Each structure stands twice: as structure tokens, then as C-alpha cells.
Amino acid sequence: MVASPARPAVGTISAWIAVGLLALAAGAVPLVVTSSFAIDVAIRILLFSFIGVAWNLMGGYAKQLSLGHAAYFGLGAYTSTLLQIDFDVSPWLGMIAGGIVAMAASLPIGWLCFRLRGPYFTIATIATAQVLMLVFLKFRDFAWGAEGTTIPNLGHAPLMMQFEEKQGYYYVALGLLAVGLAVTWAIERSWMGYYLRAIGEDEDAAEAIGVNAPRVKRYIYLISAFLTALAGTFYTQYIYFIDPQTAFSFNISIEAALVSIVGGIGTLWGPVIGTVLLEATSALLQSWLGASISGIQLTVYSLILMAVILWRPTGILGYVAELRGRRAVRAVEAEAPPTAHPSRT
């Protein structure tokens, strides 16, 4: 008897349908929303979701708390800008070149930083980003120094990643996020995903069972650096300006880590959920109360972070997973037959 082909699970089909509907809804946002401010907030949410997804590969799955991803953000931004201004190269090509430069830079940086663990690794990654910022501050002739430079405004030039309306930038940011999620999804289901989780739980134990931890961390660092550099190119084109303090800002590294922690590290959608909560709240409060109550958005931002870290350190998705696990246990207990008690003599 010939066995019938395996059918996909109902849960998997439902998940794909949900992702498809979410993609359609995200693509329709610029067609429905006409407010320039709302589109700007949406672009920031998509951008920092993408940066969070890139950071989450390293900091979430492997639990290597890097706070130096601004180094690759800045390298991507400067590479594409230098190619555009000096050689008239399209930022679409410069974006890929910036990613390659970031990957090349991550090899020596990773070689040095991966010799350390815990807080020492984190401090080392911060130092690398700050050193790069100081280097570009001094290179006045090569990279415009502390003053920075503006990006030539070409009007509506899609081939040069410039658009008259913000909707164009929205779709570019949405495409970047889709790429980041697709890469993470593929890694989750590959041998690298299993190795990353093993390293994140206990690196020594993972090496004891044959996992080549340095090689796996080096590979995932390359991917994370490449994706982060793409975000740097996009951000520079979006604001039409670049300088070392913007490109290598420590806030970028902090934001990438925080949105992942709030949403749930080591999960596919955690950085997206964390960014939606934090960026939307911050932007709306700044718009509504920023003029009357100075710093209110930062205060609420900090309160959200403290609440999540203190009460739900696994993040929002971690809490959702706990609830689903409890519900599943209760369902099993409800369906189980009652235990028969031995009769008393």
C-alpha cells in the first residue's frame, strides 16, 4: 500500500495565513494613512524592528550581549555615502558594499571580543563602536570629520534611493524588515539555529557535545553585521545627512537591544513587538505632551522597560508562551481520566 504524502499541519497553515494577512495590512498602510507624521513613525518602527531583528541573531539566540552594533550601522552608512558622493554609485549598490565592509570589520572585532564573556564582552563591543566613531571624527579630509555632510537631494530618484514622498521610504524599510525576518526564520530552522540556542543556554556544555562555538558565533556575527549595515545606509538616505555622532551613536546599539528584550529575545517576532510598543509610545507622547511636559516620553519609555525587565524578563512573547503552556497543561489535565483510588479494606 502506497503511503499518502504528509499534509502540512493545520497550525502551520494558520500561521502562514496570518503572516500573509499581516503583510497585506503592512503594505496597505501608506495607501490608507495620509499623515506625514504617522508615516514617519511607521518608518521608524520598521527600521528599528529591522535593527532589532539583526541584533537578536547575536544577542537573542546566542545570548551574546553586544552593545556595539552601532559600529556596523555606521560603517554601512559611511561606505554607501562615500561611494555615492565620490564615485556617483547608487546607494542600492552602496548598501551591499557597506554590508560587505561591515562583515569584513566584524572578523577582527569578533576575533578580539569573543575571547571575552559576560560583561567583559559587552564592554569590548561598546569600545569598538566608540573607537570607530573617534576615527571618523578625525578623518576630516576623508570622511568630513565632525561636521559631517549632507546627501545631495536629487528629487524623485528611486534608482538613487530618493523619493519625493515618504511612502517610498516606507516600502524600502518594509522590504528590509521582511528580509531580516526571512533570514531569521531560515536560521531558526537550520543547524545553526540549534547550535545558537545551545550556545546561549550553556556555551561550555555546547562545546562539550561537539559544537564549534567560536565558528558558529563568527558566522552569526557576520550575518548580524551585514544586516545592521543595510539599516545604516537606509537611515542616511532617509535623513539626507551623515556625521560620526549620528552614524555611530550609542543609542542605536541600546535601542536594538532594548526592543528585543522587551519583545522577547531569541524569538522571531520579539523585536518587532518591542519596537511597536516602545517607538509608538515614545513618538505619540512626544507629539502630544512633549511641548508641555519636557522629557515625558523618556520617562514612560523607562517605566515600560523597568516593568518588563522586573516582572517579565522573558519579554512579552515569553509571557505569551508561558500562558499558552499553562493553558495546554490545564487542557491535558482536564482530558485525563480521574485517578482511581485503591479501595479501603
Q: Can you walk through the features of this model?
A:
This protein is mainly α. The chain has one domain: ABC transporter involved in vitamin B12 uptake, BtuC, CATH 1.10.3470. The protein has 15 helices and two strands. It has a two-stranded antiparallel sheet with strand order 1-2. The chain starts with 9 loop residues before the first helix and ends in a 10-residue tail after the last helix. Mean pLDDT is 88; it is low at 1-8.
What brief labels describe this structure?
single chain, mainly alpha, ABC transporter involved in vitamin B12 uptake, BtuC, 15 helices, 2 strands, globular, disordered N terminus
Please mark out the parts with pLDDT under 50 across 5 or more consecutive residues, or reply none.
1-8
The spatial strand order of the largest sheet comes to: 1-2
> What structural class results from the helix and strand content?
mainly alpha
Mean pLDDT: 88
Strand portion: under 5%
The CATH topology assignment is ABC transporter involved in vitamin B12 uptake, BtuC
Q: What is the CA-atom radius of gyration, in angstroms?
A: 23 Å
User: What is the number of domains?
Assistant: 1
Largest sheet, if any? 2 strands, antiparallel
CATH level 1 class label = Mainly Alpha
Question: Termini distance?
Answer: 55 Å
Task: Tell me the number of helical segments per DSSP (H or I, 4 or more residues long).
Answer: 15
Give the total of beta strands: 2
- Assign an overall shape: globular
Oligomer: single chain
